[in-house]
Backbone:
């Protein structure tokens, strides 16, 4: 297993996002991605999910909406203990030199320090977390 820190730089190649700080959270089951303007639009005979990644104040923010034809909904118990219904997408994430296919729930994380949270579902059997460190993968490359 690869050792990672409590915060790591990640990229989301399919979403055209690079070098974004992500919080590693072994207490969270699923991973979450900060989005806003989340909406469903009817296109022909199907529903399509649109959203904007990050906030306009973030240095890699793009006004371009992201479009997903394949998505689902799930109920997530948030850190405050309340259940929330969220949209869920599958995409690729680059951690260090490796790319993994994973799921993200879409949520408003504007009050959080990091726009991406990586949970146990992605970390399991791949990574050990050294909570005393940050950006270990960046230092290794």
Residues:
């Amino acid at each position: 297993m690869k050792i990672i820190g409590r915060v790591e730089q990640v990229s989301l190649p399919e979403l055209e996002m690079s070098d974004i700080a992500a919080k590693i959270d072994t207490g969270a089951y699923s991973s979450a991605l900060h989005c806003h303007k989340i909406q469903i639009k009817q296109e022909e005979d199907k529903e399509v999910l649109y959203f904007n990644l990050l906030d306009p104040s973030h240095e890699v923010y793009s006004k371009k909406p992201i479009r997903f034809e394949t998505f689902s909904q799930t109920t997530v118990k948030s850190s405050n203990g309340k259940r929330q219904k969220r949209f869920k997408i599958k995409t690729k994430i680059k951690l260090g030199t490796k790319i993994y296919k994973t799921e993200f729930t879409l949520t408003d994380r504007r009050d959080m320090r990091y726009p991406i949270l990586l949970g146990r579902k992605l970390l399991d059997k791949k990574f050990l977390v050294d909570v005393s460190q940050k950006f270990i993968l960046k230092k290794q490359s």
